[in-house]
Amino acid sequence: MNNTTNNRLLRFILSMILLLASHSLLAQSVVDHRIEVSIDPETGSLTVKDTVTLPDNGNTGFTLHAGLKARILTPGVQLSQTSRANREIPLQGYRVSLPQGVKQFTLEYTGKIKHGFTTTHESTGRSRQRLAGTISSEGVFLDAGVAWYPRFGGSLKTFSLSVDLPDGWLVVSQGSGPVKAQDSKATVWTANLPQDDIYLIAAPFHFYSKQQGNTEAQVFLRQKNPNLADRYLQATSRYLTLYEKLIGPYPYAKFALVENFWETGYGMPSFTLLGSRVIRLPFIIYTSYPHEILHNWWGNGVYVDYAQGNWSEGLTSYLADHLLKEQRGQGMAYRRSALQRYGDFVRDSNDFPLTAFRSRHTSASQSVGYDKALMMFHMLRRKLGDEQFIQGLRRFYRDNQFKQAGYAELRGAFEQVSGSDLRPFFQQWTERNGAPKLELSELKVAAQTGGYRLSGKLRQTQAAAPFELDIPIIIYLADAPPLRMTLPMREPSLDLDFTLPGKPLRLEIDPWLDLFRELHPDEVPPVFSKLFGAEQLLIVLPADARKPLLEGYRQLANQWASGNNNIEIRLDRDLSQLPEDRQIWLMGRENQFLDIFNKLLNNKDYYSSDETISIKHKTFPRSAHSFALAGRSDSGNTIAWLTSDDPASLPGLARKLPHYGKYSYLAFEGARPDNSAKGQWDVSRSPLQRQIHNGPVDRIAPPASLLEALDNLPPPSAEGTESTLQRMKM
């Protein structure tokens, strides 16, 4: 046999071993479904026959979409209705009565599932469309939320799914497939390992595939595009190789990119469902796409125990979005943006602990569940070191594959590999609200025999109780190597007292932003998220602008203000001065307060004339471009300016700008408009970093990428195989 055949045989053997082990270990919670379904997209209807096998002592009650009429086909089995819930998705409860010793029955049901979109408001200018589930001529989207199959509480599932669709349509689900059924035109998908949902996605797709080791990379597109498909197939191979090396074997037989019929970024077991516009954005293949692939380890390989909080989004963000930036030397910048988003969107009124995070529904909830969580994992990595952190990840994955797990299991895995008691760390960062705020004061330096003495005080100034922190510190010296250390801070203040062998030039506290904390305004540039997350926002329109432009600005302002009671819209001529107690958008080159804004920006980075605008030494003609720039006032608030000479560009700007929150300046071209420049103003100082004496400082490089530690570790695949064999013996 060739290598490919050997690999497939090995995966089959391991899957069967894990299947036997899973049924042994999880016999009390896994329900098996053998589903045959016929779908008519034009009428929104489906007909299903599901042969259900319950575990020993399994729950005999289930729910089904109330629009489906059900009956039992198995002799001797009785079906009765229980309660009905008339919510957004109407659900009908049922109970089956089984003869003694019988665990299997066949259920048949038919009906229509056709729900429309709902819009979720996330923050100023940002909303998201959600579809509970539907069968339509545009496509089919069915999951547990719409109860298209019988749901037995929170039980995990194994299944075979045979789907009959119109000619030209293809179906996607998790697991292995697509396989043509014998003696019919149906397509079959099979998941022999426990799943937390059964997905059914269908449309007139064009199918592309490529074998990657033991895994088949797949792409399902709604229009033929072999070049686009090939880019995603190649990317799938790269990211699967990366994460198998870091964590352990990929848990499924395939990974598929599936083009959706509305704009989504969903990660399901063994596939991702992305919108048509999303998959064609050139940066998505380097950002969102690896994030969705990694979810097959975190969230769809190890399932989330939501009672303990959703840990998977933070860990996936850390090992996808952050890790890929860190590889390019941009890890600190990414952490700064994460901390800044938390500061811009989260306040006492909408904060909550990580144990209460389930999924994102607002920008504030995303900042907690993604940004705070990724910083927690970063601090854990710094606490344990890269090698123990990686070993902890592998242990957690190996011990909890296809099980529900939470922060308790995460803590247990890292404690086992490190030998440390991590209960205080996890309790503090997962069960508390808020963030520490640091202030450096009373800094003194004095010469003494044999060197210098440097002293000062570091305080936590937040209103809440102090956090236990491990403070990273670097002291640069004139005639000696720099000193790098970590000091424990367990009280509201920490006395700093250092005896130094040379003259201190510079003191840096948390130099690489390794701590989850509230940033000082001087540590971050003014960015647009400060306005989109503002408690109070004023939008000032230019009364003297041409009527089409003024109306365009007004429509943009009204769109952002929709659903918000914290946004005020005023004409500039109706204001004598700008208030100092809120964030402000100024609209238009004709705005009478524009001179105030221009004084906020560094003339080296920005220059405006009647014909052009220069940003960071690049000049753009005003006639073909739109611009958004942010500055910070003396009062600490952010004032931003949006200007365009083309009213046709403003609807697109209204839609796009809220998605560029981490930037200080933006330039767009044309009426669509297309982004042509973006970036942040430079940050030149931090109150936690002090220049003590003049002198050249050779800065210490930030720690290496997490992936460099892999050179000192054995490959995880052997560990995964050994663990699987151990499960078989249990």
Automatic annotation (TrEMBL):
Transmembrane segments: none annotated. Residues 1-27 form the signal peptide. It holds the Pfam family Peptidase_M1. Keywords: Signal. Residues 291-429 form the Peptidase M1 membrane alanine aminopeptidase domain. GO terms for molecular function: metalloaminopeptidase activity; peptide binding; zinc ion binding. This is Peptidase M28.
